[in-house]
Amino acid sequence: MINQSTYLHCRPLCFNIISSLEKRFDYIFDLKKVKSKSFILSAISHPKFKQSWIPNRYKSYCKQIFFDECYLINTDKEAVLNTDENVDSDNSDQEFFQVLSENCLDVDIDIQSNHNCINAQAMEYLNSKNKDFNVLNSFPIIKKMFFKYNTTLPSSAPVERLFSSGSQIMTPRRNRLNDKTFEMLLCCRCQNLNSNHF
């Protein structure tokens, strides 16, 4: 589009801006980068976006990442399988190995059916047309993923920076200031600090 435009003097600037954006956000433009995983899962687990934003060439790749993460979240949730069957010490070796092989078969079947259930839940979520947040209540694995990738820990750093410039404004002798006066004094103090730096 820039090549076809009539920008004569700004064309190098436009190319430079585009190349800088591509360099800075390469993990967003190229979704196969490792750094892109959290962004992909954050967007897909959000009911409003799901797969609508993904370019066609990345759809199957992103869907596979989503399914893998659903499976990981579910396996993290489950406890390690415990076998409650006790084998007597006087049993023969043949019986011991028979019990072990039966347990392994049962575990393999359980894992496969669990994997199919997770895939079915993920596919049902992706195919759902509902974009409301309440849809997450129907899909507990996706809800857990949504909370994992779309919530952040609150930080008090911006508030601390704001009030660190308060100096004499936040003292006990000024504890009866109303909100408007406090805001005015704080803004004047910040403006005064900024004008001294020039």
Automatic annotation (TrEMBL):
Domain of life where this protein originates: Eukaryota
HAT C-terminal dimerisation domain mapped to chain residues: 134-189
GO MF terms held by the record: protein dimerization activity
SUPFAM superfamilies per the UniProt record, alphabetical: Ribonuclease H-like
UniProt-listed Pfam families: Dimer_Tnp_hAT (PF05699)
Name by which UniProt lists this protein: HAT C-terminal dimerisation domain-containing protein
Organism per entry: Macrosiphum euphorbiae (potato aphid)
